[in-house]
Amino acid sequence: AREYTDLEEVWKSEKAALHGSQHIKEELEKARLELESANRSGNLEKMSELQYGRIPALEKQYDLATQAEMQEFTLLRNKVGEEEIAEVVSKWTGIPVSKMLEGERDKLLKMDEALHQRVIGQDEAVNSVANAIRRSRAGLSDPNRPNGSFLFLGPTGVGKTELCKSLATFLFDTEEAMVRIDMSEFMEKHSVARLVG
């Protein structure tokens, strides 16, 4: 019961702060309209009172109120921020919020590290793949072609499939976002027809 009372107090104080800034904003807009009206009618006394007295005072009050709002409210918000938008879009698309807020450039710069977390001991292969993807994303390759087409050769267990999976996860947030063709299924000459149709 005490936690509820504390939360209610926080909510009331935040609501009062938000309401205060809204009220000041309305007063400021009203004062600006009065200034316009006084300007049209030629009432210089009222114009100077509004322009040099009331409006600057209201602007100062509004700035103070909005600065108070900028302090992190725990329950109420007056404005929607980047985080909230990213959260909603993340729910719609399934892309994690951290990936959405991270810039493309930063993401590509950290690509080697991200791939090395899952693929160990294949520095040359990881660097080659990362460089190919960077070239593609930088616009240096044909936009009508795929981001990359890679042929990985080697014995079982060296990390060929794991590199593909980590690359797919890095770029598209799912391991299924790749076309994997196991060439051991195509040893006979006639089985190649399955690739082309």
Structure summary:
With 197 residues, the chain is an all-alpha fold. The protein contains nine helices and no strands. 66% of the residues lie in helices and 0% in strands.
Order of helices and strands: HHHHHHHHH
Measured between the Cα atoms of the first and last residue, the distance is 70 Å
Strand-residue proportion: under 5%
The helix count comes to 9
- Give the helix level as a range of percent: 55-70%
- The pLDDT mean sits at 79
| Total discrete domains | 2
The number of E-state strands comes to 0
Query: Low-confidence segments, ≥5 residues, pLDDT <50?
Result: none
Sheet/helix structural class: mainly alpha
Q: What is the molecular shape?
A: elongated
Radius of gyration: 30 Å
* Biggest beta-sheet profile: none
Can you describe what's shown?
The protein is mostly helical and 197 residues long. It has two domains: 2-70; 110-196, no CATH class. It is 66% helix and 0% strand. The protein has nine helices and no strands. The longest helix is centred in the N-terminal third of the chain and has 40 residues, at 2-41. The mean pLDDT is 79.
Show the helix and strand layout.
Blueprint: H1 2-41, H2 44-70, H3 82-93, H4 97-101, H5 104-109, H6 111-118, H7 123-137, H8 160-172, H9 193-196
Helix pairs in contact: 1-2, 6-7, 6-8
Tags for this model:
197 residues
